Amino acid sequence: MTRLILIALFIVFSSAPLFAADDNADHVKALSTHYFLEKPNGDGPFPAVIMVPGCGGFDTENRKEHYDGVQSRLVALGFVTLRVNSLAARNATNCRQAMLFPSEGTGDIYISVEYLMQLPFVKKEAINIIGWSWGGAATLLALSPPEGQISIPLAAVVTYYPACKWAGKWDSDVPVLVLGASLDNIAPFNQCEALFNALPNRAKLSVRVYEGAHHVFDNPAFQPEVQSAFGTKGYNEAAAKSAWIEATKFLKR
């Protein structure tokens, strides 16, 4: 595989942006400075996956190894992968410290999709997103573009235990897979059920809920279970393996 660490990368387009979620050039530059992209060997074009993390971001001790592993495995499956580091772009270590709402992460997703669309080794019709928790809410919000913006060309969306109370209903033909946990008391799945029941069209929505699983059930760093001020975090090996199979089958190539 080829690893590209994109440091201080800022592409200025000669024409108006296609989707332009953010007209703040300084923020676009800050975000691109913290892009971390990996690609398979060769010229492609390859399908792509945008990774959008939970509230703790990519870089904390109990999360970094997990996200590194996810990215490496996706590249081994033939995907270009791009981490969207909204927190680092704002000099923050978690979303609460930055008072960063998922809607702001959604704007960063728009910027990142536009960036990927410019890369010659990316298959333009096969750009996917995987979002976790806070990032899952940001990802679901990306399915409903703000007024005056066109929809971004997504192939498929996967969300792990999304914080659905921050998401909004959408009417989109993009296939969506939600991987929830029955014991999640940080992003309770019943909030997602309320959201899904309000959707005008559920035909493209697939849902898997893992019994006996907690928030961050896919991250081995959270074993044994960890009790926090916000609820329980805990790894569940069976749920993690099953969800990975579901997620990778769902992504479009």
The CATH class turns out to be: Alpha Beta
Q: Which class do the helix and strand fractions yield?
A: alpha/beta
What is the string of helix and strand elements? EHEEHEHHHEHEEHEEEH
Which fold name is given in CATH as the topology?
A: Rossmann fold
Mean pLDDT over the full residue set: 86
Q: In total, how many beta strands?
A: 10
Using the alpha-carbon principal axes, give the shape: globular
Q: State the CATH architecture.
A: 3-Layer(aba) Sandwich
CATH superfamily: Alpha/Beta hydrolase fold, catalytic domain
* SS field, number of helical segments: 8
Question: What would you note in describing this structure?
Answer:
The protein contains eight helices and ten strands. The two termini are 17 Å apart. The strands form two sheets. The protein has an eight-stranded mixed beta sheet with strand order 1-2-4-3-5-6-7-8, with helices on both faces. The chain has a two-stranded antiparallel sheet with strand order 9-10. The protein is α/β, with parallel strands linked by helices and 253 residues long. It has one domain: Alpha/Beta hydrolase fold, catalytic domain (Rossmann fold, 3-Layer(aba) Sandwich), CATH 3.40.50. The longest helix has 16 residues.
